[in-house]
Amino acid sequence: MESLNYGEIINLLAVLAISAAIAGFMAGLLGVGGGIIMVPALYYAFTVLDFELATRMHLAVGTSLAIIIPTSIISTKTHMEYDAVDFKMVKSFGIFILIGVIAGTFLAVNLKTPTLVLFFSIFAFMVGLFFIFLREKLVENPKTISNIVKNISGIVIGFISVPLGIGGGSLMVPFMRTFGYDIRKSIGTAAAVGFLISLSGTITMIMGGKIIDNINTPFSVGYINLLGFAVFVPVTMIMARLGAKAVYKIDKKLLSKIFGTFLLIVSIRSFVEYLNII
Question: What is the reported pTM?
């Protein structure tokens, strides 16, 4: 796609702002936001704006990772106030997350858009089922997690997160809940891990887009769309607060089922998109 004129720039900002408002409110309302909501919103915005199909999903994934950096910092600081971040767990994941992110970036930049869309669709479907049927039924007594399990899990979480454009919360929370960790501690720790994934993932997606694929999409650095980033960050932070206020009026078990159902809808919509572009 060549450089945009002023009308197209205004259109871009409007579409991104609307998408950011929806994504931010849903993220705040449902407790788990991040990339699993932002990626389809960004993909839709880039589709409306007729960005090249070959790099459309890659830009959505990369931009989502960049947006998660500031939101994960704020989220982590908030959870720290309630002593809900297990920094020993975060440190034990560190280098292995990075290894997974590097491998995940290599996979992401080499996958075609239809494959990335299908990958996202399958993942959203599985996470949706988890939130509907399993989240509230896991044990509440923490179990010791061996170093080998942490190391392998760190690599896997980092590896899967980049092609999906997520901060790892949708993977980290189920992982910690499976070993009996409290839901608040799981979410707080996932936010801190999300910072590691999003920061390293953003850097590698910039390098992957600039060095490997030589991407020249307007207002983008590698696979990070700067306008998408600039619009999403302030809007999602404002709307997330509004959505968060609504949380206290809805039962948490019901929230899990709402979020799971939402993800199933996103999954089906993504699969339909996959069928349309293959």
Answer: 0.85
At 236, list the tokens.
């999602």
**What is the pLDDT, as a whole number, of residue 32?**
57
pLDDT for the residue 108? 92
- For residue 110 the two structure tokens come to 């080499």
Q: Which two tokens stand for residue 42?
A: 């960004």
pLDDT tens for residues 160-185? Answer: 999 999 888 778 888 887 888 877 78
Q: Which residues contact 231 (CB under 8 A, 6 or more apart)?
A: 13, 16, 17, 20
